């Protein structure tokens, strides 16, 4: 049963709100001022708070600010009640992080809908956080330990090289380098993903100014590099239109690297991969399509950092950051990111950048 904290200094209205919520099946707790509400939030840890603004001891805004100083309860959804419908009050409440704002006299139906919607939203957020924690706990240790164990184990053997011939030593050195390269890419992607996530919330950094660059040679060069490295260059075909795009050279290279690597990961040798670009409706379109594994529509909407699918059925390297990085880089240039896929048939990613 979801617990709702009602903070309201007018006893009659407080009891009315409590009765409405009790009839809807919620467990309610009450406080007659902001200070008591703050203390009850800390001890009772409600699922949502419905609070008046103008109250003694601590008003609603002050109570919310104090709640946000406590990392244990700072994410509790918060709905403000007020007799005033002043836009300044509404804006202040929303800027502080309130989920909704209801004006008195209160409509029971509006109250019920607001509480239900905010709790449902919080449930979805909690579910995503739980999935994220699960994926991180399962994937990160494996992806760090696998190359690290290779480096440490083979390095230990090479401390006494007299037991091995030149060919064996060269082969072990090669494995050490490959493991180091894998570990290096994981760390680089983690740092890049973290930086892009921070920049995504900063509007001043999103609309960056960039001189236009020719795209065809950059795309072809990165396709060749990844295709040859993975031994799949013979499976890749291209149909590229030259275009001067306002994008950083390094960002475009990273986008193509992750898209082609993803296409290789979700296909098997012999499956066709096609990389194409075109100009359409004042936009530059990049498309990467591979035959093979694909994923379901249900999993498409779940694509995010540290998310992987069917890992138990299919061995995969990485921690699921590649497509999230592509999505964030595309957004950085106000582009669109779309995925179309059919399990066991194809996987297609299309990026659209405005001219």
What is the structure about, briefly put?
The protein has eleven helices and twelve strands.
Please characterize this protein's 3D structure.
There is one protein chain. The chain is elongated and about 85 Å long. The longest helix is centred in the middle third of the chain and has 51 residues, at about 110-160. The chain starts with a strand and ends with a strand. It is about 50% helix and about 20% strand. A 5-stranded parallel sheet has the order 2-1-3-4-5, with helices on both faces. It is built from 11 helices and 12 strands. The protein has 3 domains: about 5-105, Response regulator (Rossmann fold, 3-Layer(aba) Sandwich); about 130-200, Helix Hairpins; about 205-355, Histidine kinase-like ATPase, C-terminal domain (Heat Shock Protein 90). By secondary structure, it is of the alpha/beta class.
CATH fold name of the largest domain, please? Heat Shock Protein 90
The best one-word shape is: elongated
Q: Ranges with pLDDT <50 over ≥5 residues?
A: 305-319
Figure out the total of helices.
11
Fill in the keyword field for this structure.
355 residues, alpha/beta, Rossmann fold, Helix Hairpins, Heat Shock Protein 90, 3 domains, 5-stranded parallel β-sheet, 5-stranded mixed β-sheet, 11 helices, 12 strands, elongated
How is the secondary structure organized here?
Blueprint: E1 3-7, H1 11-23, E2 27-31, H2 34-44, E3 48-52, H3 60-67, E4 78-82, H4 87-96, E5 100-103, H5 108-158, H6 166-200, H7 203-206, E6 212-214, H8 216-229, E7 236-239, E8 244-246, H9 249-265, E9 273-280, E10 283-291, H10 297-300, H11 322-332, E11 336-342, E12 346-354
Parallel strand pairs: 1-2, 1-3, 3-4, 4-5, 7-9
Antiparallel strand pairs: 6-8, 9-10, 10-12, 11-12
Helix pairs in contact: 2-3, 5-6, 6-11, 8-9, 9-11
């Amino acid at each position: 049963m979801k617990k709702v904290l009602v903070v309201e200094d007018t006893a009659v209205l407080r009891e009315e709100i409590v009765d409405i919520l009790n009839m809807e099946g919620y467990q309610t707790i009450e406080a007659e001022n902001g200070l008591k509400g703050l203390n009850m939030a800390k001890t009772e840890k409600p699922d949502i708070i419905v609070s008046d603004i103008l109250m003694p001891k601590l008003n609603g805004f002050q109570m919310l600010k104090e709640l946000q100083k406590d990392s244990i309860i700072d994410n509790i959804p918060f709905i403000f009640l007020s007799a005033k419908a002043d836009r300044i009050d509404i804006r202040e409440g929303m800027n502080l992080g309130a989920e909704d704002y209801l004006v008195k006299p209160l409509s029971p139906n509006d109250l019920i809908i607001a509480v239900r919607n905010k709790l449902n939203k919080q449930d979805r957020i909690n579910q995503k956080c739980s999935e994220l924690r699960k994926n991180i706990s399962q994937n990160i240790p494996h992806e760090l330990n696998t190359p690290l164990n290779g480096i440490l184990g083979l390095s230990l053997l090479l401390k006494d090289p007299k037991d091995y011939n030149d060919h064996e030593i060269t082969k072990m050195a090669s494995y050490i380098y490959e493991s180091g390269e894998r570990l290096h890419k994981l760390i680089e992607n983690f740092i890049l993903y973290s930086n892009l996530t921070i920049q995504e919330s900063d509007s001043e950094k999103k609309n960056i100014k960039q001189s236009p660059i020719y795209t065809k040679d950059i795309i072809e060069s990165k396709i060749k590099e990844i295709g040859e490295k993975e031994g799949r260059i013979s499976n890749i075909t291209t149909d590229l239109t030259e275009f001067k795009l306002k994008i950083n050279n390094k960002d475009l290279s990273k986008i193509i690297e992750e898209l082609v690597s993803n296409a290789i990961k979700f296909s098997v040798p012999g499956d066709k991969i096609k990389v194409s670009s075109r100009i359409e409706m004042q936009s530059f379109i990049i498309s990467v399509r591979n035959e093979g594994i694909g994923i379901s529509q249900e999993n498409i909407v779940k694509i995010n950092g540290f998310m992987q699918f069917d890992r138990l059925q299919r061995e995969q390297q990485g921690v699921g950051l590649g497509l999230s990085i592509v999505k964030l880089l595309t957004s950085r240039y106000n582009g669109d990111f779309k995925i179309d896929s059919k399990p066991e048939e194809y996987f297609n990613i299309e990026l659209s950048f405005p001219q």
